[in-house]
Amino acid sequence: MSDLRILVVEHEQGTGPERFGDWLIDAGADLEIRRPHLGEAIPADLAGYAGLIVLGGAAGPLEDAGNPWFPEVRDLLRRSAAGEFPSFNICLGGEMLAAATSAGIVRRARPQIGVYRLHITSAGRADPVFAALAAAGSTFPAVLFHQEEMELPEGAQLLVTGSDAPVQAFRLGEFAWGTQFHPETDAVQIARWLDSDALPLPEGKTNESIVAELAEADAALTAACRRLAHGFVEFLRRGHFTVKVADRRPSELRS
Fold this sequence. Notes:
The chain has helices at residues 18-26, 70-81, 92-100, 122-126, 131-134, 187-196, 207-216, 218-239, and strands at residues 5-9, 30-34, 51-54, 87-90, 105-120, 139-150, 157-161, 169-172, 176-179.
């Protein structure tokens, strides 16, 4: 078992860590997935974990009525932003980090769905995690699937921008990262989301054209997002975050 044990919060069925989780494991981490939508408890004490990952989902970051664990997750993210432990937060997770630190969340008239070309900022190139993503150049393709859109939290570093939703990744404090884009997803998962979500599509796109975008860009998406996953694990390893042997429990790896 790796000393780099990461707690993963999955908000709903079909939104697991997918291949981002595989790349984290390949880089030397263990994942313990908690599914509060199935009644699984989220630990309030993260002693024994090297970090936290909060995944995406269809809800907005403040929709607590149907997701009673959301306040608990936002509290964890406030603690991460304050420097208690590292976290990496994807789409809804990134929006929850922004909302937890009083940044604005707006609802777009039409969602962004598909492959978009994003730009790594100078802060991103200097970031201890996103520098790995920047190793192959200042731009990269990424998958967007969102209608809620976050503003940059006060004091945050903008790491990735692009499209007409300019906050695509940020770091708050030393330990808390949020992305609007999805580093975990692929054409198969996007096809399922398109079939199950009643979102309006971006102008000129169809379900079939969006799936084709992802399939065509898959090699470049894989290369970029694998580097990002490895960058997060390397940050955890360099940070010497303590794992208490007595607190270890068997990890649940994604099947």
